[in-house]
Design a protein that fits this description.
This protein is an alpha/beta fold. It has 3 domains: 3-126, no CATH class; 142-336, no CATH class; 351-419, His-Me finger endonuclease fold (3-Layer(aba) Sandwich). Helix content is 46%, strand content 9%. The protein has helices spanning 10-15, 34-45, 72-82, 110-118, 143-158, 163-172, 188-202, 210-219, 228-243, 253-269, 275-295, 303-311, 319-336, 351-360, 405-414, 416-419, and strands at 3-9, 20-21, 53-60, 63-70, 120-126, 382-385, 400-403. A 5-stranded mixed beta sheet has the order 1-5-3-4-2. A hairpin with a 2-residue loop joins strand 3 and strand 4 (63-70). The longest helix has 21 residues, at 275-295. The radius of gyration is 28 Å and the shape is elongated. It starts with a strand and ends with a helix. Bound molecules: zinc ion (ZN). Zinc ion is lined by residues 365, 367-368, 370-371, 374, 404, 406-407.
Length: 422
Amino acid sequence: MKMNKRPFPLATLCSYEKRIDPTPDYQRPPAWSRKQKQLLLDTILREYDIPKMYWRAVKRADGVEYEVVDGQQRLRTIWEFRKGDFALAKDMDDICGYKVAGMKYEDLPLDVRTIFDAYPVDVVVVDDAAQADQEDEVRDMFLRLQNGTILKAQEKRNAMTGAMRDFVKDVARHPFFENCRFSNSRFAFDHIAAQTVLLEIEGGPTSVRDKDLNDLYEEHSQFASDGKVAKKVRRVYDFLLQTFPEKTPELERYNVITLYCLASVLVDGYVCEGLETKLRDWFIKFEAERKENEDKSDEQKDIQLVEYRRLISQSTDSQESIAARLDFFEKRFFDAVPDVEPKDPQRGFSNEQRLAIFRRDGGICQLKLRCDGIKVGWDHWHADHKLPHSKGGKSVVSNGQVACPECNFAKGAAKPVVNAAE
Ligand SMILES: [Zn+2]
């Protein structure tokens, strides 16, 4: 990818408005408050520095246009102020001896308008040639740009046929995604859904690049949407939805995959009931710490968070990166929440245990949900966990009881996840 840096006077930036798309699909942060806007204008009129902007040059039929990779709020604020959409703060100090408080652009003294018009903003323009597969040391600055490029590939996959495509589309409609910060433009939900399905099929961290996802769609065109993997995927997203029941701005494209992997580990091996709040609190605190760390001086930075930043910045779809990020999340989460209770590793009862339970209960259904306690035959009963396995119930004789198939089914129907496999 090619990059050019040059200063743009604000007057030029304003004249470029028609050629600039400030909200490409990969970047939609919330709008700035009036106060934030006024603070930026104060900075500009005092001729202090503001951060660089990053644009991506896109060739169109009638010339080059620009997508704003970073800096859209600043750019919008500058345009709005130039058009007179808002005024400077009412308590703003004088500029070069001129009173400017509460003024709009047009009311400003000519000298102050000139400061605005001539103020230079450094803009880094990236050439459109960025390739999704290209490994490049500058890519970390362009995480969002990179996502924009990759998402085009998901558009193509959505046009494919087969059971995997249908299943992924179904998962992408899970309400959890609506609570993330990003939108489904360019099929971001489908892309992440496909990646998580592949991770689940492989049973853990694996490469989830475009090529791998294309193979997934082709090789699993007969995918069973009610099979074991499909059920597990839905269960993890259900758990994530319970964990994040409302819009959560911390849920970004770069951390949802890792969060899914952690949730998948928890759903498999730990008692998840009551864990939702702990996971949410930990995650929100972690993201806040991470952002604070960015602003610290190099000597004060948490070196592990620096490494994590590197991991979310480059080759994010590689097996190594996902494995390292999951490892990092696991360490931090279990450190912060040490009392997570493992499920009994033994999922079912052994033959010896079944026999002991059957003899103890005299072969009588103990559930009595659909019967009055009928006697069942040895070949027609279920060993039911009194306290369900998913809630930490152990596979020990004292936690087992005889259930007739009808009652067991009724209990299962009331709580399908808990008893589906019992
Ligand atoms: Zn019964």
